[in-house]
Queue: 2 jobs
Job 1
Amino acid sequence: MQSYKRLMRLSEEAILLQSISAIMDWDMETYMPAKGVPLRGKQIAILETLNHERITDPQIEKLLDEIKSDNDYSKLSDVQKRNVYLIERNYLREVKVPTELISKLAKETTLATESWKKAKKDANFSIFQPNLEKVLELSKKRAAHIDPDKEPFDVFLDILEPGMDSKYLTSLFNDLKKQLIPIMNKCLEASNQPDLSLIHRQCPIETQQKLAIDIAKLVGYDLEAGRIDETEHPFTTGYFNDVRITTHYSLNDFSSSFFSVLHEAGHGIYEQNLNSDWIYQPVAEASSMGIHESQSRFFENVIGRSLEFWRFYLLRFKDLTGKTFADVELEPFVQALAAVRPTKIRVAADEVTYSLHIIVRYEIERDLLMEKIAVNELPVVWNQKMEEYLGVTIKNDAEGVLQDIHWAGGGFGYFPSYTLGNIIAAQFLAEMKRLLPNFSDLIEQGKISPIKAWLNEKVHSLSNLYDPLDLVKRVTGKALNISDHINYLEKKYSEIYGF
Ligand code: ZN
């Protein structure tokens, strides 16, 4: 069908423009000189504008009409129909947003990201406040253009997690909170407490870089189709055979970089293994950010923070790190790596308390977008909620409201993806264990490739053929639910803490 081919050509151009933006962003976060920021802001803005023009090209509407009224429409494959559906969904949403607003938002988020960095360094929210106000204002306008009748948070959530809304999330998160707090308390009250001095030892950055490469390769991240660099805030970006991950090294805590590499490698493996038969088509993208986070959290926690994995890896780890960890023993070491304790910092949080950090952000972000709280009230509200949910006292903005980059980039609606990722990862794990009964043995032998192959086949290769809730149902046979996640946490942490 000619019109289908023409539609796919337009779509391919947009996808290529997005992949250019991704590499420009990566460059800005890694190697670009600081003075280049205003120029980069303009460069990214023009790319975003071009992309927006492509995905809202009036020809798309015409082509969609032609395709759907064509007698041969029913002969299109499911994959082709999905492409048509995804292009139409995106078109109908984005055509409502003026291109000028997209360009302004791109410029302001670049400036806000730089301002956030300075503010975080100085632990001073007031530096970032005016930039965040601008980004928030423009983001709310964007949401209002897309759907003025919907709560802005839901507009953003629907882009990242098609099929979900805040009503669904609120009930999911409330159930989760009720189950997580008792597990956290049992860990905190257990007599068997972790000795964190086993991990907080000086470990040279060069050694940590070797560890990063070793662990990324071990789990199947392809370094010939990617690379590992250093940034303040680790992330993954790129497309198919050029998917880059980043990490942040901390001299006195190797685990910070080690687990961020595993996390980002999980994202990288997903991106590198999307279905290459469909490259440059919308169906070849990730299903959702929650599915993305299920892959990163799977490698970081299910594998990386397990006793089985360290049964295999500890010897190799000792070899790679010289004398530093020569005296550590398996079980106390794993207990320290998986230690449950409320922290101020989300990315340093353990598996049990992690979702509480997300729930704090979810509640604040919805209120912020609905103007129930103002930007200048954020530090106070943040600190109150952290005290209430996690019992931690925030002493300055850097360890409080300024710790995450998301809002600076206009990434509203993103935080729930992390918790959805935890929940989905546990559902995938339960199904994987059913189909690979020797799952634990494989990890104990350091054989990650059959596990990665399972994910490649069941999840990665389906790419964006299904929306996230449908994908979870298809892979696991069950609707998304928290019970596998809770069972996983109870079993794992009762063993580690002996309750
Ligand atoms: Zn992630």
Note: The chain has 20 helices and three strands.
Job 2
Amino acid sequence: MLKLKENFRLGVSSASMQIEGGQLNSNWHDWAAQNKIKDGSTPANANDHYYRYHEDFLIMQEMGIKDYRFSVEWSRIEPEEGEFDTLALEHYRTMIIDMKSLGIRPLLTLWHFSHPMWFEDKKGFLNAGNIQYFMRYVGVVIEYLGDLVDEYITINEPNVYAIMGYLFNEWPPSNNNGFAQVFKVMSVLSTVHIQTYKHIKEMLPHAQVGYAHHVRHFTGQPKVNVKMARYLFQDALAIACMTGEFKMPLRNIRRFKKGIYVDFIGINYYTQTTINNINFDFSKDLPKNDLGWDIYPEGLARVIREVYDICQKPIYITENGTCDNDDRFRARYLADHLEVITKMGLPVERYYQWSFSDNFEWVEGESSRFGLVHIDYETQARTIKRSGYFYKDLIKNHGITQQMVQEYLVGSAYDTHQG
Ligand code: BGC
């Protein structure tokens, strides 16, 4: 049994490249064309959400979902440098008007790992001189959509993007130059966040603006390495983005003054990382999801406290969810994480589950399923999963009743399904 706090809001999250489909001139289409996606899929069709958004909003409405985090696609809005596509902008206007008319409140992300190829060709966020292009795009989006949307996420998970694309080389642009580039990209993206924050506040003083910070719970040995990994992966970045203080190894390119550059703390949490000397590992004891990630709900409370120490603003869990291809333990995962945050004394005000529907999971492609709603990629049929009905009941009851425990949680222990 669980009673959620009064005024606590439950929503769902998504990202344009992962659901929209369409022949886009973007870094991820280029990456897929180079056969880099593990299961051979591409984002070309994805969930066809660009044309089926109304159907998806109706399903959200049926599930009682009133909060939706999504992103608009820069490569559609500005497919060629300096050429803005009014039809794409009009499309997003119509889409947002539609979701609002169904009682769904938008939280709009401006960049979620995808951008136009012309920008990539200029070395993207590795080059501080390119920030001007992003700011111009932001200006156009706010001009077009600002009267409809009050809440914004500037950028998504700068640390994951920097590591995957510039150290592990699993994501575009895969430059293979190691840590120097990782910290450069993190510095540029922190600058992008602060400039975007300021720009939106100038254009829309009433807007609420933050960024989505990916945090892991770090554990392992030796402790000094654990601390260092945590600092380099997430803490230095959070301090820079939220307070304008750029500590080593990050660089304050625009000499921002110290201040507060978020109106809320956006937290994306999935798993923990175990440090084994200088290696990253998964724990031997914890249950795993279908990508082999540790399932560790208590870690969410710990990372929230760590970030709240840096900046005391309302906390939104902007992503939390799991890869559970057969929907065996997703309901339990959600219940366990919600229980942890409900017990905390800190102002956690919202929770956006990742994700509303199965979608194109970056380099894993279509075969890793994170959705409350199943997508048949052949027919584009949408089917609410058992965990989706659990979420619907969760919203309806604003908590977990005894009946829900019996119906969804009993017998859905993680241990029955180790990755
Ligand atoms: C990203 C999502 C992604 C999810 C699951 C987050 O890091 O923001 O785009 O699908 O994790 O891997």
Note: The CA atoms of residues 236 and 248 lie 8 Å apart.
